[in-house]
Automatic annotation (TrEMBL):
Sorted UniProt keywords: Cell membrane, Membrane, Transmembrane, Transmembrane helix
Cellular component per GO, a single term: plasma membrane
Classification via InterPro entries: CPA3_antiporter_subunitC, NUOK/Mnh_C1-like
Protein name as annotated: Na+/H+ antiporter subunit C
Membrane topology: Multi-pass membrane protein
Pfam families: Oxidored_q2
Subcellular location: Cell membrane
Domain of life: Bacteria
Transmembrane segments: 26-44, 76-98
NCBIfam families in alphabetical order: PRK09094.1
Family per record: Belongs to the CPA3 antiporters (TC 2.A.63) subunit C family.
């Protein structure tokens, strides 16, 4: 399980960085999204993966922190997902406005470079 998770984080992070280096704005936005997904998975994996363990205390039980899931990484990832969605929406609006003003979607303004 840990190997699959590490590979997923590596693939998402590598793909995100590769897309950040592309000259078009849409690819840049997708790269930022993939990179944020990789970071979210990494933060979520830091909270351990207890399988079959209860997430909260049951009535009458003593609390042993080693038995229960850590809620802090889960709350951090949830907050990061909400903030990432808002910034992606802002980036898309700015991208559409810039494309309308300049007539192209290149980051550096050189439209004929890919042809």
């Amino acid at each position: 399980m840990e190997l699959i998770l590490a590979l997923a984080i590596g693939v998402l992070g590598g793909s995100g960085v590769w897309l950040l280096m592309r000259p078009r704005t849409f690819q840049l936005i997708i790269g930022l999204s993939l990179l944020s997904y990789a970071v979210n998975l990494f933060i979520f994996s830091m909270g351990r993966f207890p399988v079959g363990k209860p997430p909260i205390l049951e009535p009458g039980m003593r609390g042993d922190p080693a038995v229960f899931a850590d809620p802090l990484p889960q709350s951090l990832v949830l907050t990061a997902i909400v903030i990432g969605f808002a910034t992606t929406a802002l980036f898309l609006v700015v991208m559409l406005a810039a494309r309308g003003l300049t007539g192209g979607d290149h980051v550096d303004g050189q439209a004929g470079r890919d042809r």
